[in-house]
Design brief:
The protein is α+β, with helices and mostly antiparallel strands. The chain has seven helices and seven strands; from the N terminus they run αααββββαββαβαα. The longest helix is centred in the first third of the chain and has 9 residues. The protein is globular. The protein starts with 5 loop residues before the first helix and ends in a 6-residue tail after the last helix.
């Protein structure tokens, strides 16, 4: 049966209770701040006005995302492949979702809110010590902040060294792209 309504969904899953329902905060507090300051990696989600979805990995040194106050984050937009999918979506909708990860920690921090792209020198100066400083930053206004339980990481054994595969048994990105595109170019 295809589930197509909120009523069907809630009949199947029910509603969140207790801490699962109450844990959503509207600003950052000491544990969220510590999580962000300790995290070297996040996944940024966005959507265009037409509904085109994007999830983009972002990383840097520990604490690469700067916290201005309990409702404001600044994410450097490090130079990449110039696809600009996420930031194009942010320009269109002004919305963002963030999932912060810390290596070895199974819990995650989720942030949802509004966002815009900025080349404000005040924000860029926050990253002036970087080897390759950004030319723009993503200004995030936190609307929801909550810790997410460890179940997915525990099931996947993502941080468990015994679950890691041998890299030699997996094709390089260059090989995969060449096969997908029917080319024989160096990455």
């Amino acid at each position: 049966m295809k589930i197509i309504s909120q009523e069907q969904l809630r009949k199947l899953y029910g509603y969140p209770k207790g801490r699962a329902k109450d844990k959503v905060l509207t600003k950052l507090e000491k544990h969220a701040i510590n999580f962000i300051e300790t995290s070297p990696f996040l996944v940024m989600s966005s959507s265009s006005e037409a509904g085109k979805q994007d999830a983009s990995p972002r990383g840097g040194s520990t604490g690469f995302v700067k916290i201005l106050d309990d409702n404001t984050l600044i994410i450097p937009d490090a130079k990449g492949n110039n696809r600009v999918d996420s930031i194009s979506n942010i320009i269109e909708t002004g919305r963002i979702g963030l999932l912060f990860l810390i290596p070895g920690i199974n819990e995650t921090l989720r942030i949802n809110g509004s966002a815009y792209l900025s080349s404000d020198p005040t924000y860029l100066k926050l990253f002036s010590e970087e080897q390759n400083p950004p030319i723009a930053c993503i200004h995030v206004t936190v609307e929801e902040s909550f810790l997410h339980c460890a179940k997915a990481f525990m099931r996947s054994k993502l941080w468990d060294i015994s679950a890691q595969i041998n890299k030699d048994n997996f094709p390089t990105i260059g090989k995969m792209l060449n096969d997908q595109l029917g080319t024989n170019k160096e990455p």
